[in-house]
Specification:
This is Redoxin domain-containing protein. One of its GO terms (molecular function) is antioxidant activity. It comes from Yoonia rhodophyticola. InterPro entries: AhpC/TSA, Thioredoxin-like_sf, Thioredoxin_domain. The chain is an alpha/beta fold and 174 residues long. The protein has a single domain, classed as Glutaredoxin, CATH 3.40.30. The protein contains five helices and nine strands; from the N terminus they run E-E-E-H-H-E-H-E-H-E-E-E-E-H. A five-stranded mixed β-sheet has the order 5-4-3-8-9. The longest helix has 13 residues. The relative contact order is 0.23.
Length: 174
């Protein structure tokens, strides 16, 4: 029986997670104190056409997102797969790779096994979006157990803008 993930508590600092950036030196670390908010998007990987559509929409709106916060995108893919996607689609956001199952679990993500080797060859995370405050605490969580359920990026950006500009409290803590 697969292990189920525990939802990370909103309002609390998340574990520091480090992800290598495709085609770049060094890693991006989330969960540490910094000057700006971060939106972390987790996608299923190169094998997922719904992910590509979602990330293409994110890339089209990227200037508005980056005016407000840092954007990080990650999957369990290899660097080779991440670079192939980045080259094919011309994405401008930081595209990270190599997400480990322990990191997926730390974020409360659903984890799937591939249906075949044609899909992918290892465990991968189902989609998630995480709004992280500058102090490393979790403000917003949106996770799905499959590729069809994703946040509307316009609504999410509007909501994050409101939350940041009005220093809104964390919701869903009861």
């Amino acid at each position: 029986m697969p292990l189920s993930a525990t939802k990370p508590p909103v309002g609390e600092k998340i574990d520091q997670l480090s992800f290598p950036v495709a085609g770049a030196q060094g890693d991006i670390v989330i969960g540490q104190a910094k000057d700006r908010w971060t939106m972390l998007f987790v996608y299923r990987g190169k094998h997922c056409p719904r992910c590509k559509r979602f990330l293409n929409k994110l890339n089209a709106a990227l200037p508005a997102w980056q005016a407000l916060l840092d954007v990080v995108v990650v999957s369990a893919d290899t660097e080779e797969k991440a670079l192939a996607d980045k080259a094919e689609f011309g994405w401008d956001f930081d595209l990270c790779y190599g997400m480990e199952v322990s990191q997926m679990r730390a974020l409360g993500l659903y984890v799937s096994e591939p249906l075949s080797d044609a899909e992918t060859t290892g465990l991968f995370a189902e989609p998630g979006a995480f709004g992280i405050r500058p102090d490393g605490s979790l403000m917003l969580v949106d996770i799905s157990n499959g590729p069809a359920a994703r946040p509307d990026l316009d609504e999410l950006l509007d909501g994050m803008t409101f939350n940041i500009e009005n220093d809104r409290p964390v919701r869903g803590t009861a």
